[in-house]
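Troubleshooting entry. The earlier prediction with flavin-adenine dinucleotide gave an output that would not parse, so I re-checked the input for stray whitespace and re-submitted. Clean input:
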Amino acid sequence: MDFSLTPEERQIRDTVRSFVEKEVMPLEPEVLRNERAGRPAVDPEVLRDLRAKARKSGFWGINTPEEYGGAALGPIMSAIIAMEIGRTFVPFSFGGSADNILYAGTDEQKQRYLIPTIEGERRSCFAITEPGAGSDARNIRTRATRDGSEWVLNGEKTFITGGSEADFVMVFAVAEPYGVTCFLVDRDMGWKSEPIPTMGEWGPAALVFQDVRVPEENILGELGKGFELAMAWIGQGRYMIPARAIGSAERMLGMAIDYAKIRKSMGQTISEYQAIQWMIADSQVEIEAAKWLTLYAAWRVSEGMDARHASSIAKLNGAVMANQVVDRVLQIHGGMGYTKELPIERWYRELRLLRIFEGTDEIQKRTIARNLIKGHARLGLIGE
Ligand SMILES: Cc1cc2nc3c(=O)[nH]c(=O)nc-3n(C[C@H](O)[C@H](O)[C@H](O)COP(=O)(O)OP(=O)(O)OC[C@H]3O[C@@H](n4cnc5c(N)ncnc54)[C@H](O)[C@@H]3O)c2cc1C
């Protein structure tokens, strides 16, 4: 069993770390100022310039196949790069990627949706959740009715990330009598969005479809097979959620250690107290555990193995870990941790989402338990 990276992989990791430290982290004070004044976190032009700079150094389409101009570094390096980017709360990501579900499109759909999204010319959003169907995603009510060569969509989606900015949506609707089907729907076909304020900094949106007419050729995948399509593709990328959180947790733990070494109480630095040391130790143990569970899930994807069970474990563990670590880091900072002078409270609010979206903690536990009970996953086998 070899845990080492090749020299090239190490170089990529180090280059990303230095890019994040030199180019992205300096924006942090401005991001805090902007967000607290209700402005966009970073000027879109600044983000565009950063991405262009990164592209020049080859950081473009990290996990995008080479035939689409990507770097095709694979799931393990994608996870490692996400860990590095997660070290900052600046809403930055390298350009050149698209929701993986779009690779299921026809050649024509790839030209109209996938490639422009990779190139950053179009923005997408993924809409399955409805006011009456979250964890119970099979219960969606949005309807698609055939009318000649078109489908007419009616219904409402909620909590859709990027829904305010997207110019097309991958929306899941029940196409009678076939079942749940995914449609690619341009904004100018007539759907509307309304931002939803949340405790985090980037709000999702509610989407309304009222007699939205969509041509037959805009069905993504097969008629009636939308649910399986969504679950298969979401499952493939789920390890990226804990990956980013690992970077955030590590950076915050570093801040807590630095603070504990200088903050004095009752005649000594708080780093001398066992209560503080235990919080530091527990955090590092949990971060390391999350790291290896995440890399294992990414490895399964890279080997073409079924990664759904491993990804559920990694997502559940990573989300809980990040919330425990940020809570301890805030505690170690005392009253300062609770202020808006430091970014900890911001991370606290942002990381809380991880236990809810892309399958809540409870749904991941349900999946893990059911896999074991039904024999889809087995205990105690390493390497299979
Ligand atoms: C900021 C944000 C961004 C999001 N982005 C997107 C997006 O881009 N696209 C999209 O489609 N959706 C998105 N979502 C929706 C998200 O996936 C759902 O909120 C999530 O799946 C939970 O559904 P729900 O909110 O309806 O909660 P519910 O399903 O109503 O759950 C309520 C509680 O009951 C528990 N529960 C439910 N069923 C069970 C069960 N069978 N067993 C045990 N416990 C159960 C849940 O774990 C939870 O604790 C986003 C949500 C948020 C908050």
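This one parsed fine. The longest strand covers residues 150-160.
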